């Protein structure tokens, strides 16, 4: 099965990495389609009429032609499974894609929780690759970023957290014989100038992303009860599409290294308030849209929640 996502963003998982859609200006029709199906069918892999998926994507601003193309491409890549019932086509998430998306949802919620206690040590990855090994260098740097590392200097990357065994093995494969990993404390050099390890990250830029998220979504909280129908579905899709990027933006630096009032927790609480607060209204609307194209409505349309994301999901009911 081809990966359901492009290469720009992935979840740093212990096994094969589930991938997020490429970050770009706007949101691609394929990304919206995957988000919608995940938000309302992940636990059951319920099959929805293709016409209903097109209609829901239309409410998100995707043209009918763009929606059909997105569905077709996702099916070719193995993200969706199709079936015919009479004249109607139905699609559902493939078993492999659902497993990846479940792992990804867990990563989103777990990685934006409060950080673990820090022992004051840094993990340092040093590597040296010839300039003509450009592809290998890019792959190694990309893997390090996905693991939460940042470059203190060109060939010296750091993280406050220990590097798990599988990740060590992966780095060794990417830079065979040219990478060294060690862990230790920073040594104060007195009057000799030195760059603080935390300066490897643009802390102000990370904070700016959180603050923009808070400005965008805080006003909605006071009127969640009045948001329903297509507006509820659109809001949940948009808040998810924005919030899921924080694991790749924020490496969960220890709070003692960050400015007071770091907004990670506030953003996480706001996401939960919006995403969970609109779940019932959005689920009702999705059911209503599907009912226009299927009688009876397929069972298993259920809004995903942040609790589901954190716990991971097990399929409910028969999913042959």
Automatic annotation (TrEMBL):
Organism per entry: Micromonospora tulbaghiae
InterPro entries per the UniProt record, alphabetical: PaaX-like_central, PaaX-like_N, PaaX_C, PaaX_trns_reg, WH-like_DNA-bd_sf
Biased composition (Acidic residues): 1-12
Domain Transcriptional repressor PaaX-like C-terminal: 201-287
A GO biological-process term: DNA-templated transcription
Domain Transcriptional repressor PaaX-like central Cas2-like: 116-188
Name used for this protein in its record: PaaX family transcriptional regulator
Pfam families: PaaX, PaaX_C, PaaX_M
Chain positions covered by the region annotation Disordered: 1-28
Upper classification of the organism: Bacteria, Bacillati, Actinomycetota, Actinomycetes, Micromonosporales
Domain Transcriptional repressor PaaX-like N-terminal, first and last residues per copy: 29-95
């Amino acid at each position: 099965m081809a990966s359901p996502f492009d290469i720009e963003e992935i979840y740093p998982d212990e096994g094969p990495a589930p991938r997020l859609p490429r970050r770009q200006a706007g949101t691609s029709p394929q990304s919206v389609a995957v988000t919608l199906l995940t938000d309302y069918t992940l636990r059951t892999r319920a099959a929805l009429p293709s016409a209903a998926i097109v209609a829901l994507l239309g409410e998100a601003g995707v043209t009918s032609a763009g929606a059909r193309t997105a569905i077709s491409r996702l099916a070719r890549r193995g993200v969706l499974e199709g079936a015919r019932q009479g004249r109607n086509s139905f699609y559902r998430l493939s078993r492999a894609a659902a497993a990846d998306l479940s792992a990804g949802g867990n990563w989103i919620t777990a990685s934006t929780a409060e950080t673990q206690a820090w022992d004051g040590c840094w993990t340092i990855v040093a590597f040296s690759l010839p300039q003509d090994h450009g592809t290998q260098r890019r792959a190694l740097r990309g893997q390090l970023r996905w693991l939460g590392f940042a470059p203190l200097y060109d060939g010296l990357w750091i993280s406050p957290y220990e590097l798990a065994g599988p990740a060590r093995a992966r780095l060794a494969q990417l830079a065979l014989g040219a990478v060294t990993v060690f862990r230790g404390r920073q040594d104060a050099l007195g009057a000799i100038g030195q760059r603080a390890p935390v300066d490897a990250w643009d802390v102000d830029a990370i904070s700016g992303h959180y603050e923009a998220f808070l400005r965008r979504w805080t006003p909605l909280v006071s009127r969640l009860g009045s948001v329903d129908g297509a507006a509820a579905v659109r809001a949940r899709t948009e808040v998810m599409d924005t919030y899921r990027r924080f694991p790749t933006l924020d490496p969960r630096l220890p709070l003692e290294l960050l400015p007071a009032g770091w907004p990670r927790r506030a953003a996480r609480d706001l996401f939960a308030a919006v995403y969970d607060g609109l779940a019932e209204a959005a689920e009702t609307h999705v059911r209503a849209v599907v009912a226009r194209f299927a009688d009876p409505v397929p069972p298993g349309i259920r809004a995903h929640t942040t609790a589901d994301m954190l716990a991971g999901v097990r399929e409910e009911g028969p999913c042959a």
